[in-house]
Amino acid sequence: MRLLAYVLIASSLVAGALAALTAYTPPLGAAAASDTPLTLNAPAGRDPDAPERPLLTPDAEAPVRLTRDLVAQLVEQRVDRVRVKEFAFGRWDLGWLFGLSALGLLAGGLIIRREDLRHVASLLAAEPSDAETPHYALAAARREVEALLRDVRAAAVGTDPEIARRLDAVQSTHLLAFVEARPELIGRFGIAGYARLMDAFASAERSLHRAWSAAADHAQHEAVASLERGLEHLAETEAPGRRGWRRPSPERPDLNDLAGGTAVLRPCRRAGATRRPPAGAGSALGFPTLRSWPAAPTSR
């Protein structure tokens, strides 16, 4: 269905563009039937005495009005269409095709939206895998940045390459996992909520990238300042009740309000080790979970 929607959208765009080209080039019969003479906007016809020159040439100082006599001359020369300055739906013979193209674009967009919602629903109903949930990815990134900042302040990490190495690990695992969860985040928070959520997340990413660059340039003071800013933006992204986030509902539960099930935060094995979420992480963070799973059976 998604492929069909893309084909429908592409064909609608082509048909709509072709129809739009005729909006100001009505058939000569429609131009002749106009109550008031239309203003010519492009050369038309051929001069009988000099075939290389047009019969009618628009002039800004002396506009050419398509009177019945001029239209009759163009008809004799078998001119089908003329470009005019005035627009009217009544003269637009391909207006129906333009409207049909608009409906095709709308239908294609609705099909893609339905397929996206179906895809998100399948993700929400799927069994846990080795990938991180967005909730755990963000919380794990914040914890690792906090630990790095704490080690730098305590001089436990004394080399700039070590700072860059640990930031690389955070960016290539937890932050990447959060970015890849785009369909789930859109399904949970909607486009507007996702945009506001990613606004703070992008600020955190920029700060961490700046910290990495400062560490690579052996500017540890700037690296620490950027780490602090990145930590603030991560906390802002993670904070409950953030603007743009939808309130919890039966369709969008909060991690603290789950009943009859267990929110499973998936372990991450991208960095070569399994990380488990800390006990009580959900209640401490108050982060609206993106997945709620039924409690695992005690035996099979």
Structure description:
This protein is mostly helical and 300 residues long. It is built from 9 helices and no strands. It has helices spanning 2-21, 28-32, 68-76, 95-125, 134-153, 160-180, 182-216, 220-238, 281-285. The chain starts with a helix and ends in a 15-residue tail after the last helix. Residues 240-300 have low confidence and may be disordered.
- Overall geometry: elongated
Q: Give the domain tally.
A: 2
Characterize the largest beta sheet: strand count, sense, and whether it forms a barrel: none
The percent range for helix content is 55-70%
The portion of residues forming beta strands comes to under 5%
Report the mean per-residue pLDDT as an integer.
Answer: 75
State the oligomer.
single chain
The helix-strand sequence is HHHHHHHHH
Rg, rounded, reads: 32 Å
Low-confidence spans: 240-300
The first-level CATH class name of the largest domain: Mainly Alpha
Helix/strand/pairing category: mainly alpha
Q: How many helical stretches?
A: 9
- Count the beta strands: 0
Known CATH architecture of the largest domain: Up-down Bundle
CATH domain fold name of the largest domain: Four Helix Bundle (Hemerythrin (Met), subunit A)
Distance between the termini: 38 Å
Quick overview of this protein structure:
This protein is mainly alpha-helical and 300 residues long.
Topology:
Blueprint: H1 2-21, H2 28-32, H3 68-76, H4 95-125, H5 134-153, H6 160-180, H7 182-216, H8 220-238, H9 281-285
Short key terms for the protein model shown above:
300 residues; mainly alpha; Four Helix Bundle (Hemerythrin (Met), subunit A); single chain; disordered C terminus; elongated; 55% helix; 2 domains
